[in-house]
Each structure stands twice: as C-alpha cells, then as structure tokens.
User: Fold these one by one.
Assistant:
Number 1:
Amino acid sequence: MSYADTVYIETCRKILTEGVWDTDREVRPHWPDGTPAHTVKCFGIVNRYDLKKEFPIMTLRRTYYRSCIDELLWIWQKKSNNVHELGSHIWDSWADENGTIGKAYGYQLGVKHQYPEGMFDQVDRVLYDLKQNPASRRILTNLYNFNDLNEMALYPCAYSMTFNVSGNTLNAILNQRSQDMLTANNWNVTQYAVLVHMLAQVSGLEAGELVHVIADCHIYDRHVPLVEKLLEKEPLPAPKFYVNQEVKDFYRFTVDDFHFENYRFHEFREKIPVAI
C-alpha cells in the first residue's frame, strides 16, 4: 500500500479520536453560506517521507498532480502572485481586482536580498548554496514576512523550507502553520516532494527525506463525514515517479517533465466544500 495513505489515515484518525474542537471560540474561516467553519485539530504533527523508497502520493482519492505541480511552479519558478499565470482556479477566490493575491507566496520568493556574494532572491540563493556550499546549515526559505502580511490576501500556510545535504542526499523540512487535511494535505506533500526532487536533480544530489511539520493540523466540521468515508477505502500500491533527467536547469522544468506510472486511485465523487 502507499505509505502516503498510511500516514494520512493515521493522522486523520488521531485528529478524529484525540483532537480538540474550537466550537467554543469565534473563528475567521467561514463557509460560502456565511456559517463559521469550525475544526477539530491536533497540534504539532510531524510526518516523515523517505523519497528514496517511494513517492508520497495518496491513492485513497486522486491527487491532481498536474495542477498541483503547476501551482508549485507558479510559486517557486515563476515567483508569481498573479492568478492569471496559474493553470487552475484554486486561488481565484483570494484574488483582488487585478488578479493578484498581494505580496504572498511567489512574490516573497522573488524579492532580492543582499548577500556577501551579491543580490539573490530566495530561490536563487538556495540553488547557489546547494551547489557552492552544500555543507551550509543556512539553506532555507521563508514566506512569512511580517512587514508584508497586511498586503497578503492570505497569510502563507506552508511558509518555510529548510534544506540540508547529508553526503549526496538532499533532505528538507516543510513547516506549515495550518493544514486542512481533506482539501490540501496530500496536495502539499506531493508539491514539496516534487520540489525536493527538482532541487536535488539540478544540484547533482539525490532526493532524500521530506519532513512535514504541521502546527495546527485540522479537519473542518463539514469535512468530518467525508474524511470518515475516505478512511473506509483500502490503500492501493504507490505509483512509480519519474522526472525528466535531461533537465539540469531549475527554471526549465515544466509540468510535462513529471510522470507517474501506474497511478491507481479510488474514485471520490463527493463534492468537497472549501472554507474561506
């Protein structure tokens, strides 16, 4: 069975059996009909995925990996905040009249900063250090810029990546302040596993471990019956993941350079409401 499914099932069961509800508090998120969107949550979830063993994509329901990777490239490669440059419509509800999400996500990665070696944005600095200074313990990115929070449509959920090279292996930690388990968990895991593979390949390294640290790991009230139905399904074997080995430049990757062989998944036709 897919290890991603095993982790997902264990995490959701922990939330449903041990989690704490916030129904006694006022909350910011709401449903499209205006009803407060309450959650049951666990604090401080840490999940580890060994990318050398298998790619962590779930089979309990389909992860639309092409759209998932497209969003990753929109943030990390295009460094964009304009939803018109994104192939899907997942950010449309957050966009302003100009089609931007403000100074969030890709915008932050594109801001240049002064280093002893010159001016770099956050992505280019990671690429530089992985090749020129792989022993560094300072290879990281951070999207949570307090100075710009008031100009962001949404504060970053997955906000920080720390990269660490051990031998010839690239490992990474993804820090996430908030995680909606039904709509976004495997979406984020898939994205950042792909990112580790991308950075490893262009840096002459092997993809190693992705550690996912989640502060507030939750299931929304209207998602509980959907998650329970999902947990009844039997996990399927993980597919094989392939990256176009000819790509050596981070900025040359496209969605078509990633392929899953024998990706089998369960149909899940229930409509999933999204809290905003």
Number 2:
Amino acid sequence: MAMDYSQLPLGKHTAYGDQYDASLLVAVPRSHTRDFWHDNTALPFNGIDNWTGYEVSWLDNKGKPQVACLLLAYNAMTTNIVESKSLKLYLNSFNQTRFATPEQVATIISRDVEKIVAGAVSVELQCTPFPDRLAIKPWQDPCIDHLDIAIEQYCVDAQLLQCDSSLFTEQTLVSHLLRSNCPVTGQPDWASVRIHYHGCKITEESLLRYICSYRLHQGFHEQCIERMFCDIWLQCRPEKLSIEGRFTRRGGLDINPFRASHTDMHPTHARQLRQ
C-alpha cells in the first residue's frame, strides 16, 4: 500500500520550537517502504538502523548550554521508522530546556523514540570534544568505483546483476557512488555502500551498474538498502550477505542502515569521509 507522505514534515515550512516537545516525532510504518518484497516468505534479513546526530544541545540546571553528538540505534524489525525531519525538529526542541544531566536527556530521547518506532532504542550521548567513536575511518576494502564502464540505465533493475556460477568466493566490495532521492522532497541522498557476501562471484562491473541505477530512484535510506539486499539475495543467491549504507548527513543527522542474512554479521560503524 502506497503511503500518503503529504502529512510528513519533510518539504514544508516549519516553525522551530525551542522547548522540549515529544509530539514533534512522526512515525513512518516500515510496511509502506517494503513493497518491493513480493515473496510470500519472511524478509531475508535482520539488521539495525544507526543514526548520528551532530547538532544536539540543551541547557543545564544553571542555564549553561550543553552540546553532544547523539548515537541512536534501533532494530530493523521495529514496526516503524522515525521520520528524519521530525527527529531534527524534536532534537531542536531541547535547545532552551533545562535538564539536570546528559543521562536525563538520553533517557528521555530513548523513551520518546521507542514509542514512535514501537521497539527498543539505544541512545548514547557523546559529550567529549572529539569522541573516538565518531572518528573518520574510511573502509579499506576494495572499491569498484574505478571501473571504466558505460552506464545507460538509471532505473533500478535486479537483472543488471550478473554472477559467475563457476567461481565461489567470499568478498567485500565498496562503492561511494550511491545516490538516491527523498520520496517526499525529491532532494538527492548520497551514500557509501559496503557489500560483503559468500557465494558465486558477483561481476564487479554489473554490481557497479546496479548501484548507479539508484541515481533517479525515490526511496528512504532504509528502503534503498533493503531493496539492494533483496535484489542481490534473489538474483545472485549468496549463502551469506550483508550491506551497510553510510549516508551523508542532512539537517545534522546521518542514517546508516545495516542489513544482514545472519546474526553473526555486524556493521563496521565506520564513519566515512563525506559524513
């Protein structure tokens, strides 16, 4: 069922409040972003959505401004995702509100977002000036962006993916050329993507063409990574697969979805250069 996005804050002129207001948060049902999965079986992945907030601030009990970076995460199987602009507006509402400790702020954010996504939420506030967790750590895996190929198709099509069934491999490949578009505003979203798989060798040229085919696609970050996972899973039939998307920030937030076929596969949590 297609979702009516007209009620979302995205793309609309918005008044920015500065007093804490949990009602600003808006949910988007995941079911509306998974219409690409037509199989009658369960979704073939698990995973997590990792968010980073770079513009979090509040007042302490004496009125002194406090700043922090927010690390927020919730499971890929929550009922809803939180709409990104609503989260931005919500975080801005803390700006002129007094709180006793950073722990109090983290507890409130966790409680409020859990109600929206209908699932457990992990919240961590990094208050040190240069937290190591947020250091830039470029992926060192082979990057396929150097391949000299012609690209003529910018409509997502799993048939672009090709495999060599005579070669079985375990491989990790990276591309920084992923671009998609917000389904509400039409604004471009940019990302790096890391694909790890065990299975028949995926032809690197075909994988790069497939990644670039998202260039005009409209979809939320989470939906794009899930669509990519499902297309590779069905078209190439790997034994194991994980995909991590690291999207550039917008409105002080970046979203980094991770999807995997097995629970022993984990995201790198590695902030990329453009983030």
Number 3:
Amino acid sequence: MANFTAADVKALREQTGAGMMDVKKALTEADGDAEKALEIIRLKGLKSLSKREDRQASAGLLVAQVADGVGVLVEVNSETDFVAKNQKFIDFANEVLAAAVASGASDLESLLASPMGDETVQDKLNSIAAVIGEKLEIRRVVRVEGENVDLYLHQTSPDLPPQVGVFVVTDAPGASVAHDIAMHIAAYMPAYLDRGAVPVDVLEKERETLTKITLEEGKPEHIVGKIVDGRMEAYFKDNCLVDQAFARDPSQSVGKVLAEAGAKVTEFVRVHVGA
C-alpha cells in the first residue's frame, strides 16, 4: 500500500510542476518521503533533458519591468499551460528578469551566461527543467531605453500569466498617452511605426502584388495606378502605428492623438509568447 496521500501528491506536484504519474512514481520509490521524491524527480529530469530537445516549448509567459527610463522584458517558455501557471515556474521567470536587469543583458547569449546566485541563468534553467519534467527555454530578452518608457502586459486568458507584452518609448509629452497607445498596439498589432519604417523591398513587393490583383480584376490599365495607390493607403492604415485608427476612438488616427498631445513615439516593441 502506498505510503503517501493524495495531499502529498498535490503538494509535490505544486512544488515541482511535474506530471501526476511522475510524482506518484517518485513518492512510491521514496516510500512517501517528499524530500527523497523531489531528488528522484530532479535526477530523472536531468537524465531526460536531451530527450526533450526536439519538443516544442510554445507555451510560457512574459515578465517585464521599467525603471529609470529602461524597460526589460524576458520570455520564458514551457511545453504546456499547466507549467506556465505553476508558481515555481513563475518565480523562476522573475528571477531570470532580475538577472537580466542586474547584468544589463540585451541579447539571449549574454542573458544565459549571466550570474544567477552561484550559477548562471543557463544552469538554473537546466535544473528547473529537470525538476518540472518539460522542455523549458528562455526565448528572448528585450531591452529598450528612452525619455519615457511605458509597459503593458496582457493576459489572453484570466487563468494564465501575461502572454502579450508591449513597450512604447516616447518623448516626455508622450507620457500622457503612452499607456493607451501600448494597449492599442497589443490589440492592433502594427508592424511598423510609420511609413518611413517600412522596408523598400516590402513596399515594392506589396505594390507588385496589388498591381497584379488589380489587373486580374479586369480594371482598365490607365486607372490601375490610382487604384493601387488607394490600396497602398489601406495597407499603411493596417500596418503602420501612426496611420491606424486609435483603439479608444476609431474616429482618430494614432498619429492625430499623438499630435494633439504634442507627443512623439520613437520606438515600440510587441511580443507574443511563442511567436
């Protein structure tokens, strides 16, 4: 007869984030001793790390902070939402964020090599992956700086940690509208700040595609250029932040909202877990 209770299973599962069967097997092998079971889970996890390399870690969460005009965001991934909302995993993600802030890391390689206690971030990642029993990875670190940096983190589901994160960098007058614009970016997903930010090759390909579509519709060749110009305007309104209809008041563009505030957005970053 098993020398442990359902409450023991629940407690160890919450502590480790490991699957129910793995926890039961570990407790059975440890004759109900929770500390021994934890070590069994960890050792088995270390042995199976290489076997999980080909798995997809597309769930996870975002953690971020802004201080003194510097914004730092880290994405940490897991295989399942169950792990993504596990407190041990969330605590680890916040520790990674603290390491990113302390080290000033602005790229993934630097972050993974950053100190985290007596080990590196990579070492800690391997250790917690061994305990939890899923493939875990740190996908990216984002660092922005500016006169005013605003952060918006969005939960796509109320039972999950943030899945979408936005930084908006503005001048000082932009502070009054920055958060609303960050929320707008989370929802409307602009690809570029303004028309000047769209790469030339992207514009050329879009115009070429629209021209082909317009000709295939049988439009007279002498008006094709004007029709394509109009469709390019629609492209800009879909993809450029300042040309988009403002989420809180679609009668105005984001550019008009900024102009009325005497403000300027210099940069924005939008991140979605797993994307």
